[in-house]
Amino acid sequence: PQTVYLKDYTPPEYLIETVELNFDLDEQLTIVRSSLSLQRNPQSKHQNLALSLMGEELQLISLAIDGVSLDEDEYTLDKESLLIHKVPQDRAFQLKIENSISPAANTALEGLYLSSQMLCTQCEAQGFRKITWFLDRPDVMSRYKVTLSAAKDKYPVLLSNGNKIAGGDIDQNRHWVTWEDPFAKPSYLFALVAGQLEAVSDEFVTHSGRRIELQIFVESHNVDKCAHAMQSLKNAMRWDEETYGLEYDLDLYMIVAVDHFNMGAMENKGLNIFNTKFVLARPDTATDSDYEYIEGVIGHEYFHNWTGNRITCRDWFQLSLKEGFTVFRDQQFSADRSSKAVKRIADVNALRTRQFAEDAGPLAHPVRPEAYIEINNFYTLTVYEKGAEVVRMLHTLLGPEGFRKGCDLYFARHDGQAVTCEDFVNALETANQADFSQFWLWYSQAGTPVLDVTEHYDAANQQLHLTIKQSCPATPGQAQKAPFHIPVKLGLLSDDGSAAPIWFNQQSSNEITLHVTAAEQTFSFANLAQAPVVSLLRGFSAPVILKMERSLEDLAFLLRHDSDTFNRWEAGQQLAIKVIFELIKNLQNQQALQLTPLLVDAWRNILQDKFSDLSYQAMLLSLPEESYLAGLMEVIDVDAIHEAREFVRISLAKQLQTEFQRLYTLYHRDESGNFQADAIGRRRLKNICLNYLISLETPENYELAERQFYSAGNMTDQMAALATIANSRHPAKARSLDSFYHQWRREALVIDKWFALQATSSMPNTFATVQSLMRHHAFDIKTPNRVRALIGAFSQSNPVNFHAKNGEGYAFLADQVLVLNDLNPQIASRMVTGLAQWRRYDEERQILMKQQLQRIVSYAHLSKDVYEIASKSLA
Ligand code: HT7
Ligand code: ZN
After folding, report:
1. Given this model, what pLDDT does residue 670 score?
2. Which of 97, 665, 848, 854 has the greatest number of CB atoms lying within 10 Å of its CB?
3. Which residues, by Cβ under 5 Å, contact ligand 2, an ion?
4. Cβ(562)–Cβ(493) under 8 Å?
């Protein structure tokens, strides 16, 4: 397969000003008639008389230019393009194309496809070319008018972008609707939906007094699960006006929820299409986390209207221009809507566990990649999450006002354009007279920088010297790295836990941001009568690995006293990590395990202290996840990690049982339907206590979990109880799982949870369970949510069982990847991730994982998607 390079970018040779599309919709055979007004792009340097359009899996019916049909010798058709040998050069012309497509046969879920009984589209990144031939690239922006016609009974609702301008009946059985979008857009933002859908409606009055109609379309049995998504949308619209001064532009905003979707959601202009998972919620079917995710994703897609749609990407290498910025915006939104501390910790946790692994492995790439084989493979944690961290650092460096000033300039300068990441950074620089030339390296250099910090207290001069060395490991294609510009937030604590004033450059403050720009730098702080305790990288001010020798006592001190909520949590995590790694060493040397009283005391303090934010308290009590611990190990030992972490969990439960029980009883109450932050906090705290308690495997704690499972009036409590049961030797495990299935068999999203819960159990017979679940009548390999819930969850979130020494997990995954490869390459390539980190394991596992990757690569009909991930993993 061919590699596409950023350096080869050239402007399009032709532009398309307007597009008229006419769809005769039918699930077996849809006829597409497209009329394009084209003209040469004055900015193109080429002198080509020919016009090359992209198209895949299309059946051509006819072609005409300015009303004159083209003969077969006037064009060349191949698998991926249509070349019209000669087109008018000095004037605009009309190209008419008629072709057919087969939505029901489209299992890749890209282009026009059938989801349940509904027809819908997914065009990002390059799906439009599976609908008709086009200049399917984001820098070609056109105005669209779309007419849909279909059978009235099967497809009573017909939707596309923009405003509905006309409609009517064709005959007794068929009807039509015309939509017009006044905003020019790239083809990836085109959408249509047809189906038997019900609309839940509301309205929003904008800052300037415009009335916007809001509609969420779902199948009729889901109408009672849209209220939260609707409220989230209104919250997002208000927030963007207040925070960025950005108002919605069309008169109508539509969201459609579909069962079959390759990702979370899609920001098509005026017609978002969502995975049902990120729309539907009712207290008894969705957990508190589901509610939070829904608000975040609804916000994310809404925010794209400005960061992505009004201002879009010049080419797909610039993906982080819209995704990194929009993730940052949705993170800010969620933080403002809930607990800032908890949201930041959750985001950093996800980044460090998953993106850091990507950045340290064979698939590492810069936030702005330079080459790809299949762009769908670059919707990555690096482009999204690290991209958001890069924007966050710009926000930190400029401060909120400076950042807003820069954004205002970006929106004013580039509205209606397709631009690059440089354009974004330039606008921030110009508005603030800043210089981000070194900062730019965050976009072009891959890998996670490491900060090695040493401190030296000079008692005689009452000075503290901090020496920070930065380095960044080699990544594929980038052996050497230049130093980054890293904002490092710092605070100092006196020995009573209060803030020690920071005297730096003759000025004093309680917190400062250091600019780390060289390979090695020393920062000195004056007027310190005693050695302070350093709180570094507050708020996780940069996506780096911080290495600093710290005693258990210092960490326990920071855990008690740091005023920075992120660093307070981080101190607890570092403390637990140090303890767990000591235990891992003991296990590997076959020594007896013992838990240091220091950790028990620290956890006791957390349990006994008063917190206004109980979600935060619950987070402080959570032990680092196994996958995060794995990322810190030279050679990953999944069994030792699991055993050591379990030992800590059980020991804490034994020694602090009374405290865990006290808090469980205090906060266990029925307040289903209450989604206020304090009620969510009570559930989180109570459920983490339950998690510790059940590890004791005593009848009374088993009883506690079972009672909660059967009496819960909300999904958070029911799932939390079932998860503890499924992950233990609870005698009622099978009965509880069966009961759950029967209770929820008609709710697809809840059944996904049921699959995932079993797939992630660390109990010994899980692989057999996974195999039998593959044969369960509710399992469907053509439904991405189900695949993620079973195959994805097992291979990516069940380290002990997936990495079983006999290699059965690896062979199973490769089998499924090959099946998926033929059905849905995007989902197949996502599943390969489970094997990508093979070099991090012991030699025996390396051999087994590598064998499966080789088996995948040698498959005769391998898709570009899977080939790219598997071959790069092996390289
Ligand atoms: N911008 C959207 C990306 C997306 C997507 C990409 C490839 C294949 C399928 C897809 N569905 C959605 C989602 C977002 O980031 O908002
Ligand atoms: Zn996005």
Report:
1. 87
2. 97
3. 323, 326
4. yes
Pairing relationship of beta strands 211-218 and 252-258 according to DSSP bridges: parallel
361 C-alpha to center of ligand 2: Å?
24
Give the whole-angstrom CA distance, residue 186 versus residue 102.
23
Fold category of 745-875 in CATH: Zincin-like fold (1.25.50)
Kindly list the distances between the CA atom of residue 383 and the CA atoms of 327, 483, 738, 801, 808, in Å, as whole numbers in the listed order: 10, 20, 40, 30, 32
What's the confidence (pLDDT) of residue 754? 98
CATH architecture observed for domain 450-545:
Sandwich (2.60)
pLDDT of residue 76: 98
Neighbours of 416 (CB within 10 A): 11
pLDDT at 400 over 90: yes
Given this chain, do its domains 4-291 and 450-545 carry the same CATH topology? yes
- Cα separation, 654 vs 633, in Å, equals 28
Query: Rounded distance, CA 53 to CA 78, Å?
Result: 11
Q: Residue 523 corresponds to which tokens in the numbers above?
A: 């920062």
Cβ proximity of 98 and 31 under 8 Å: yes
For residue 49, with 0-12 CB atoms within 10 Å meaning exposed, 13-18 middle and 19 or more buried, which class applies? Answer: exposed
The predicted model scores a pTM of 0.98
Q: Which residue has the tokens 């908890």?
A: 342
Residue with tokens 């501390």, as numbered in its chain = 341
Angstrom distance (rounded) from CA 400 to CA 408: 12
For ligand 1, atom 12: residue with the closest CA: 266
* CA distances, 468 to each of 39, 156, 483, 505, 562 (Å): 56, 64, 12, 17, 21
Which residue, by CA, sits nearest to atom 5 of ligand 1? Answer: 124
The reply to whether 301 belongs to the active site is: yes
Ligand 1, residues at Cβ distance < 6 Å: 122, 124-125, 262-263, 265-267, 300-301, 304, 323, 376, 379, 826
State whether CATH 2.60.40.1730 applies to domain 4-291: yes
Q: Which of 13, 219, 292, 301 is catalytic?
A: 301
Query: What ipTM was reported for this prediction?
Result: 0.98
Residue 379 CA to ligand 2 center (angstroms) comes to: 9
The predicted structure's pLDDT at residue 696:
97
β-sheet with 512-516: strand ranges across: 512-516, 486-493, 533-536
Instruction: Tell which residue, 239, 256, 133, has the closest CA to residue 193.
Output: 256
Token couple for 123: 């065009």
